[in-house]
Amino acid sequence: MSIELNRRSLVNGAVAVAGAAAMSPLLSACGGGGGNSATRRKGGTNSKKGAAAALPTYVASTAVQADIPSTTGSGSAVTDPGILKYPASPVKSVAEVPGAGGHYTALTPLWGTIPAAGNSFYQAMNKALGATLTMKPANGVTYANTIPTLTAARKLPDWVQLPGWWNAQFKVGELCGTQLADLTPYLAGDKVKQYPNLAALPTGAWTAGMWQDKLYGIPSFASGFGLPGQYFYRGDVFRSKGINADDVKSCDDLLNLGKELTDAKGGVWAFDDLWPYIFQMFDFSYKFTVTNGKLVHKYEQPEFIEALNWCHKVAKSGYVHPDALAGNNNDAKTRFYAGKVLITADGTGAWNEADALAGIAANKSYRRESFKPFSADGTKPPRLFLNPSAGEFSYLNANLKPAQIQECLRIANYLAAPFGSAEYTLVNFGVEGTDYTMGAHGPTPTKSGMADVQAQTFPFLATPGNVISNPDYPDVTKDHCTWNSLAATYAYKPVFWNMNITVPQRYATADAAQAVEDTIKDVYHGIKPVSAFQDALSTWKGSGGGDALVQWYQTTVMDKLGTGQ
Amino acid sequence: MVSTVAEQGEDEQDSSDRPAGDGGAGRTTASSAGTAPQVDRLNWRVRLRRDKSLILMTLPAVGLLLVFNYLPMVGTITAFQYYDPLDGIRNSQWAGLANFRQLFGDPLFWHAMENTLYISAVQLVLFFPIPILLALLLNSVLNSRIRSVVQAITFLPHFYSWVLVVTLFQQMIGGAGLLNQFLRQHNAGTWDFMTNPHTFSLLVTSQVVWKDAGWGIIVFLAALSAIDQNLYEAAASDGAGRWRRLWHITLPGMRSVIVLMLVLRLGNALSVGFEQLLIQRFAVGHDAADVLDTFSFYYGIGTQNYSYGAAAGIFKSVISLLLIWGANKLAHRFGEDGLYRK
């Protein structure tokens, strides 16, 4: 479960997730702390009207001169700007030292090697921030189990990153106001102007961090055009075989290409798992669609069964790598780098400099490219639903005093300094000479920089809006920006977009629909026929509580608060 | 397992209902107290002083047991609640037996139960005898160097994690593994063992054999080494052949340990492994791979329905307790010691 969620959702950060379904100890003896359930708020859902009063005013930043400017697509999608060269001499953009000598502990997930505590980079950061921020990066793979133990014991640190795809698991809706601080009094409306870099974050990203019509989450890696993922192919291999990827205009084309590319004897298969973003071809929704004023769950959309049918056929075709069919997702990137798989589904964040480096290490001519979006039958225009405008949010502890919250927000403002500024360079690359050297294309990390300066520590507390930049590989930036501006023309806001909905505990099992999801996996791995899905679906609708869940969404959320369009 | 045998050894020394001159002879205090039945009624203070070093030695283990096994049992209350970790045990709503009613009406649960029993039965038949046979085989090797090399090699895989073991199997006999690539290159049909739900129990068992058979022989080797060598010499001089000695000396000498292991195995019949099945769940599908433990994980913890998972866990524990109790009774009936002496 968590593997797929990670792959889907870590779209913006340059985050490679090697997540395995992690083992969790039973939360048996924990908890029992204070808190009276009768008086404690049980979360709620955002409404468009209520949110408007709390949202910060947007003040665009002019600090970044984009080489490839943003484009506006449909569904109010705005692509991230592309920057080809890193500024040779980064400029200072935050005038004052933000901290007031406070001491704070920050917890963030890290998918990689944890840097040593108190290292020289942390010290340099504390000096620049004027406060002592004790960074406590925790293993990202088991993070989903770390947080519930802390919240059950009411021991969250001062500042914590809670990735959006775990909102339900962490019960963020219930934590807001009880354990997490309400930032509305500090940031609503024009108040945000005290923190100009936070004011420059897109409004959608703030909306995605709102709970019960109040501001709680500070967004990281905000983007005006976030997709769950996309389909990639090995551009270098396609060119050497004389294949033009633009000729693939339907699922039939793709399957035929699969036949052409698969050479099982030679250990090469055309496809990895194609299911993760198959909704981009078959046009079923993120979770719900509205038909004649009624909510329809994606499981009940005819397109869903069509997609499942097709993926089952692909699994049986012999064009999918056997390890992918055996459920091994962790090695998907390795298979792609090694050329054992030529077409793969991955998050949009997979397309960057780190990927180019890793791919070229395996094969000198490695080039990742992406299929232009197409619909299953090739006649309709494809439709791509948007992700929430940010996937990662940091929260402040409710026990902090107002002066402390203001200090932390000033620090967040520093961390959100524009791309290429002196502050951005320090946060992302460390100290020149120690952690990086300035090369022809931009900062190149040194050995200590690689160990200490991690993309998943300070940037998980706050970042500027997303920018596409791969200084050493300008072609990657160009390809990515071109693809984005085309794909943005097919974008739409899914039902309940950017709305944080707190589902009551009694519907949690139906909402997770574990039994249906398991069966879906069996079907697209070719283990079970599509009829198994229909059986699981009818159980889910009835005794599984699915119909009741949809009804709850209809009456409590949609009828009262709208669909977030 | 090793500690169990050690404790059993301890029991033997402690035992007081044996005829004089057998086990209790080593204890000067015990023998000085007079006849056997009175030994049991020794003042607890005297016994405490007598056994204080032994008690001290077991204290850390008892402490660990308390902290990690007994204390968490408080959490079983959650099975009777609609437990919300944010409310804690004290403030969560009481559910009574609702979770159990839901559990017993859940076809997925019964399916997991079925899988558990099936895999357990297959393992009992195909895995359990292997360490015994290996131990006998090793015991018959006279060259101690060859013996320790073989033992080390069969022993090592026990220390591999399940992720490694499954990866190794995948690399060898998986769809794109060594064997199948070889078959493909020679235009032979491929052998789909790693993703075939129908033969999954055999796959799981073969992995367990590869990983743990070597580990399992330790106990039996210990039992073998405890057999008096004089018996063999006496039997040999009486003209007993190799097979007769095996039948009349070796096997009876091992019998109590074999029965003990069997009782423990039955008590664990509902625990057929967790990581191993979790890792391979997507390869064969949840229908074939879901056992009680993974059921608790996916349908309890995975969907934040902790109470439901706890209910499944408690049910499993109760059945396990009954199984171990029954097996022990049976062992006693056949005149064996089982877990403890009656």
UniProtKB/TrEMBL annotation, chain A:
Q: Would I find Signal among this entry's keywords?
A: yes
Could you say which residues form the signal peptide? 1-29
> Which InterPro entries does UniProt cross-reference here?
Bact_solute-bd_prot1, TAT_signal
Sorted keywords for this record are: Signal
Q: What family does the database annotate?
A: Belongs to the bacterial solute-binding protein 1 family.
The record, for PANTHER family, names: ARABINOSE-BINDING PROTEIN-RELATED (PTHR43649), SN-GLYCEROL-3-PHOSPHATE-BINDING PERIPLASMIC PROTEIN UGPB (PTHR43649:SF31)
- Record-given protein name: Carbohydrate ABC transporter substrate-binding protein, CUT1 family
TrEMBL record, chain B:
Major localization listed first in the record, in broad terms: membrane
Sorted alphabetically, the Gene Ontology cellular component annotations on this record are: plasma membrane
Q: Where are the transmembrane segments?
A: 54-83, 117-138, 159-179, 213-232, 253-274, 306-325
Membrane topology, as annotated: Multi-pass membrane protein
Compartment(s) where it occurs, according to its Swiss-Prot or TrEMBL record = Cell membrane
Q: Which residues form the ABC transmembrane type-1 domain?
A: 113-327
- Matching Gene3D superfamilies: MetI-like
**What organism is listed for this UniProt entry?**
Actinacidiphila paucisporea
Q: Where is the composition biased (Low complexity)?
A: 27-36
Region annotation Disordered: residue ranges? 1-36
**GO terms for biological process?**
transmembrane transport
Q: Which UniProt keywords apply?
A: Cell membrane, Membrane, Transmembrane, Transmembrane helix, Transport
Query: Which family does the record assign?
Result: Belongs to the binding-protein-dependent transport system permease family.
Protein name, UniProt field = Carbohydrate ABC transporter membrane protein 1, CUT1 family
